[in-house]
Structures are given as C-alpha cells and as structure tokens.
C-alpha cells in the first residue's frame, strides 16, 4: 500500500507528465482585476464610512494602494501562478502587520484565496508547487503562532468582543486560538485542495482531447486502409467483368475467322458481338479508373459473378438469421434481369448485401422489404434497388459509415443516384437507381 505522503504527492500531480498550458494575460483577466478592484475599493469605503477603521492610523492612500495592488495580482494568476502566490503571501503579511483591519477585509481575503488556488491549479512544475505551497503554509502558521506566543492578538480580540469571561464550554483563550487555527486551516486547505481539483480536471480534459485526436487519427488510418481495400476489391471485380468480355471477344473473333469465307452473315454477327463486348469492356475500364480515384470499404466476401438471379439465395441466408426478408423483382420486360450487364448486376447484388448487413448490425427491424425494378422501355432505362426496413437505430451500435459510403461509391461508378436515410413514416430506406444507358 502506498505511503500517505506518496499518495498526496500523486494526487497533486508530482512527477506527472501532464503540463497545463500557460495562457497569456487576456481580456478576461483584465476584466476580473478591474471588477475586483472596483468592488474592493467600494467595500473599503463602505467599511470606513461605518467607522470600521477607527483604530487605524494608516493614510487612506496606503489603504487604497493595498487593495489596488492586491487586485492587480490577479492579472498574472494563470501566467505566473507560483510567483503571484508568493507575492500575494508577502502582501498578506505586510498588510497584516501594518494595517490588519484592511488586510482582514473580505475583498482582500478573496484575492489571497484566489492567488493561492491559482498557484496550485496552474503551476507547471508540480514539485516546485508543492515546495512553494508548503513554505507559504508553514510561514503563515508560524506567523499565527508568533502572534499567539509573543503578541497580544488573542487578548485584544477578546477585549474587542467583550469575551474575557468564561461563558461557554471552553475557556476563552484556548477557544480563540482554536477558532483562529480552524479558520486558517479551512482557508488555506480549501485554496490548496481547490487548486488541486482544478488541475486534475484540466488534466482529465487534456487526456480526453489527446484520446480524441488519437481516435480521429486511427479512424483516418482505418478509413484510408478501407479505401485501399475497396479499390483493390473493385479492381478485382471489374477485372473479372472485363476479362469475361475480352474472352468473349476472342471466342467471337475466332468464330468469325473460321466462317468468314463460308458464311459472311454469321461472321458479321460474330464481329458485331465483338464490337459490343469491346465497348462494354472499355466502359467498365473507364468506370474502374474513375472509381479508383476515391474508394471505400464493403466488408463482404468476393462474389464477382453474383447478380440479380443470386438475390434469393442471399435473402434466404439473411432470413435464416432471424430477419424476415421479402424479395420482389419487378421486370417491365421479360427476362430484363438476365439482360443486365455483369457490372450492373453485381452492383445491385452488392447494394442489397450491404443494406441487409447494416439492418442486422445497426437496426431493431425484424422485417425488410427488398424490391428490384428493371425497366428498359423508358427514355432512360434503369435498374433500381430499394431496401426498406421497419426498425430504429439500435443504441450502442453506430457504425463507421463505410458501408453506406461503399454503396454511394459503387453507385457513382455506374453513374447511379442514391437515396439513403430514415423515412418519415418510420424505418430506414436505401434506394439506388442505376441508369442502364450508362452501363452499355
């Protein structure tokens, strides 16, 4: 078990690596000093008018100077905390010896209290702070002891209060000494402990700020890593799509070469297929170059051949995990889903996959509706996927946002439009529309 002295030193931050900032003298310090001086001088004159300084021979200007100089000390209480605490202690001693009635004013006592508290709260060198505060407390109690031992302060106080007779539980002189010591213990102890609490609160705020900076930096690194991972994954996906197109081009070109002399019409059809496959491959490569400028992460396994026809299996897997999922594929033309390019089909599949993953992880929903609409007859043909749930965000499961960012990025790859967010009637919706004209 640590020694009590060691625990006290630890509480005051001795040998702690934290150093509180030393702000320059600002407008708030000036306003505080001016306000304290004005109130102190007003209180001084009110006490004088009430006859409180009848036994004081010190000139008025000296009394004003004592109050004003004490208020000025507050200017540097944060900039030079230990120096101000030492000067305030000397100020208290000199004023107490030369003009005790003025030193005993509440305004000056508040000034001394704030100066000592600031010395503990703002000192950067904690060992020096302990030494300085120890000297101040030792000197002040030595001064009180000297007054009790060699002076007549106790008897003077008893005579002023007309308490020389024994009228309570305790004798007058021991009671006067005890109350004086108690007041000073509370006064200096309160200032020192209050300063320690303030310093520890500042240290806690500093640590929280450092943690926030560290967390932000780590989040940035994770986001960057997720971007790189997504770029690589999209590159692999689109590479497979393009490789499929190039393979088809090779097969069709070989077929055209073999029948060119015997069947020109078949060769023309094969060459047309080569043209279409090459155009789609170039389009996918162009999308790849645009996507790799910016990226994000979707933590899903690699399924580059997945498409709309694979959605029932995906829905069945999710439904097996306690979530009711209704799938509806609406095709305005027969077999419209089968005519989707591999890139669009994979994008639709990934969008549904990521949306369902988000529902499982971050929502209270128990029912999800997945609707895929494909219409090739419109002036702008499209394939649209909409995922709607009936839940609310689950507390304590806020994600990084990378999943939704991945949906947006994949949609941008194909020139799609994204609408993600809570619904007015309740639940959450993810809707992405992919223009088919862009993909072809």
- In round numbers, the mean pLDDT is 80
Helix proportion range: 55-70%
* Termini gap: 76 Å
Rg for CA atoms? 41 Å
Number of domains: 2
Give the tally of β-strands.
5
Shape: rod-shaped
Share of β-strand residues: 5-15%
Element order: H for helix, E for strand? HHHHHHHHHHHEHEEHEEH
Structural class: alpha+beta
The neighbouring-strand order within the major sheet is 1-2-3-5-4
Unreliable stretches (pLDDT < 50, length at least 5) are 293-303
Main beta sheet: 5 strands, mixed
Separate helix tally: 14
Keywords: ATP-binding, Kinase, Membrane, Nucleotide-binding, Phosphoprotein, Transferase, Transmembrane, Transmembrane helix, Two-component regulatory system
InterPro entries: HATPase_C_sf, HATPase_dom, Sensor_HK_TwoCompSys, Sig_transdc_His_kin_sub3_dim/P
Transmembrane segments: 82-100, 106-123, 130-149, 169-197
EC number: 2.7.13.3
Topology:
Elements: H1 4-11, H2 27-49, H3 60-72, H4 81-98, H5 100-103, H6 106-122, H7 126-150, H8 153-161, H9 172-259, H10 264-291, H11 311-319, E1 324-331, H12 342-362, E2 367-375, E3 382-389, H13 402-413, E4 417-422, E5 428-435, H14 436-439
Parallel strand pairs: 1-2
Antiparallel strand pairs: 2-3, 3-5, 4-5
Helix pairs in contact: 2-3, 2-6, 4-6, 4-7, 6-9, 7-9, 8-9, 9-10, 10-13, 12-13
Keywords: ATP-binding, Kinase, Membrane, Nucleotide-binding, Phosphoprotein, Transferase, Transmembrane, Transmembrane helix, Two-component regulatory system
Domain Histidine kinase/HSP90-like ATPase: 343-438
Organism: Nocardioides exalbidus
């Amino acid at each position: 078990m640590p020694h009590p002295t060691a625990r006290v030193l630890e509480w005051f931050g001795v040998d702690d690596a934290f150093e509180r900032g030393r702000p320059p003298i600002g407008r708030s310090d000036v306003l505080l000093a001016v306000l304290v001086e004005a109130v102190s001088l007003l209180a001084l004159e009110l006490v004088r008018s009430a006859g409180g300084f009848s036994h004081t021979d010190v000139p008025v200007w000296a009394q004003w100077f004592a109050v004003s100089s004490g208020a000025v000390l507050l200017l540097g209480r944060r900039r030079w905390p230990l120096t101000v605490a030492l000067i305030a202690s000397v100020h208290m001693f000199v004023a107490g010896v030369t003009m005790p009635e003025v030193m005993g004013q509440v305004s000056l006592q508040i000034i001394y209290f704030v100066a000592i508290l600031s010395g503990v709260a703002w000192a950067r060198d904690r060992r020096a702070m302990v030494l300085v505060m120890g000297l101040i407390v030792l000197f002040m109690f030595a001064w009180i002891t000297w007054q009790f031992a060699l002076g007549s302060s106790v008897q003077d106080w008893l005579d002023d209060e007309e308490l020389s007779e024994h009228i309570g539980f305790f004798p007058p002189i021991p009671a006067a000494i005890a109350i004086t010591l108690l007041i000073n213990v509370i006064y200096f102890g309160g200032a020192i402990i209050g300063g320690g609490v303030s310093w520890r609160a500042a240290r806690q705020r500093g640590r929280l700020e450092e943690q926030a900076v560290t967390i932000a930096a780590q989040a940035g690194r994770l986001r960057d890593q997720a971007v790189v991972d997504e770029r690589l994954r999209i590159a692999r996906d689109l590479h497979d799509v393009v490789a499929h197109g190039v393979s088809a081009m090779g097969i069709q070109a070989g077929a055209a070469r073999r029948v060119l002399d015997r069947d020109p019409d078949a060769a023309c059809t094969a060459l047309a297929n080569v043209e279409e496959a090459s155009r789609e491959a170039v389009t996918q490569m162009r999308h790849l170059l645009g996507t790799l400028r910016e990226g994000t992460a979707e933590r899903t396994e690699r399924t580059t051949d997945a498409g709309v026809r694979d959605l029932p299996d995906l829905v069945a897997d999710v439904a097996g995990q306690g979530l009711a999922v209704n799938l509806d594929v609406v095709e305005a033309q027969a077999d419209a889903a089968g005519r989707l390019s591999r890139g669009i089909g994979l994008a639709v599949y990934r969008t549904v996959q990521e949306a369902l993953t988000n529902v499982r992880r971050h929502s209270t929903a128990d029912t999800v509706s997945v609707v895929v609409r494909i219409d090739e007859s419109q002036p702008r043909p499209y394939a649209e996927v909409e995922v709607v749930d009936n839940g609310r965000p689950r507390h304590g499961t806020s994600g990084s946002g990378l999943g939704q960012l991945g949906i947006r990025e994949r949609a941008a790859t194909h020139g799609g439009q994204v609408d993600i967010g809570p619904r007015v009637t309740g639940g959450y919706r993810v809707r992405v529309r992919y223009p088919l004209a862009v993909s072809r």
